Amino acid sequence: MYKLSVLVAGSTGYIGIQLIKLLSNHKNILIKYLCGNTSIGKKISYFDKSLKKKKLPNIVKFNKSLLKNVDLIFTALPNGNAQEISKYLLKKNTLIDLAADFRLQKAKSYLKWYKQKHRAKSKIKDSIYALPELCLNKIKKYKIISCPGCYPTSVLLPLIPLLKKNLINTNNIIIDSKSGYSGAGRGVHKKYAKKNLYESLSVYGVGFHRHNSEIEQEIDKITKKKFSFTFTPHLTPMFRGILSTIYVDSNRTVNIYKIHKCLKKSYQNKPFVKILKINTLIGTNNVINTNYCYISICKTKYKNKYIILSAIDNLIKGGAGQAIQNMNIKYGFDESRGLK
What we know:
By secondary structure, this protein is of the alpha/beta class. The protein has two domains: 4-148 and 318-330, 3-Layer(aba) Sandwich (Rossmann fold), CATH 3.40.50.720; 151-315, Dihydrodipicolinate Reductase, domain 2 (2-Layer Sandwich), CATH 3.30.360.10. It is 24% helix and 21% strand. The protein has eight helices and 14 strands. It has helices at residues 14-23, 81-86, 107-114, 150-164, 188-191, 211-222, 256-266, 316-330, and strands at 4-9, 29-35, 59-60, 72-75, 94-97, 127-129, 144-146, 173-180, 202-203, 229-236, 242-249, 273-275, 293-299, 305-312. Strands 3-2-1-4-5-7-6 form a seven-stranded parallel beta sheet. Strands 9-10-8-11-14-13-12 form a seven-stranded mixed beta sheet. α1 (14-23) links the parallel β1 and β2. α1 crosses α8 and α4 packs parallel to α6 (211-222). The chain is globular, with a radius of gyration of 20 Å.
């Protein structure tokens, strides 16, 4: 059986561990290298005991010479690192990045939102912002595949089809998102040590969270109208999962049934997006440990005002699972392979 040789850089973080768990069960994957900086020589099972029975390599330090022995590189590293690795890619290599290094299509936007210069400007043209349900036929053409952020995944999947069809107003879209603390990485425990992380709800990034840039970029691609949205993220006292509550106004002649029909039609052949019955109440428990996005459209007491609910697992559909979904599409495997 054909197998891709894989290197995972940033293998010990929450996303990295989740990625290894999924890849180790994918029949077309051979994990050749696991890379880290402070964990060299350790077994990956040191960070997650459920991997103890898996035949996985010990952690090594990344070196560009490793690239000649692999087909595919996954990077789950701090921002900027994947840009450096991209400079050394060989003709045979594909890079799938789970951080933000190639999410923005303009280097100046990256500087604005991430406060650092882009280190591989010439590689941006070789990359695609790959939300698989929305760019399925384009992914195969690109050498660098950038996986969207977890919040934008939960937001763009319901909004893009409705904006494309001009069913909702483009001004004053309100997005309220709540995430498990794993979305902030392993450092979250120290960073929020004084905020009673495990028993309280915390707002952060008000008005200027970095994921605003992705949402704005992708909406701008599909509408010529002026638009505005307010996005506010929260950390919740749970480990994983995202629930986004999105408030929209429909255009005058558009009712809830037309919105629901549009979403159903848009995702009828997409295995990981489930459009539920109107007014279905959903939560993160519906999607935990899956690559699904559940979407529900609900009525309010006001005509032409609706609430969209969107739930994902931030570590899978908002991270490692989406990366594997993109890999499956890139290499012609069944889109659901390793994810069901």
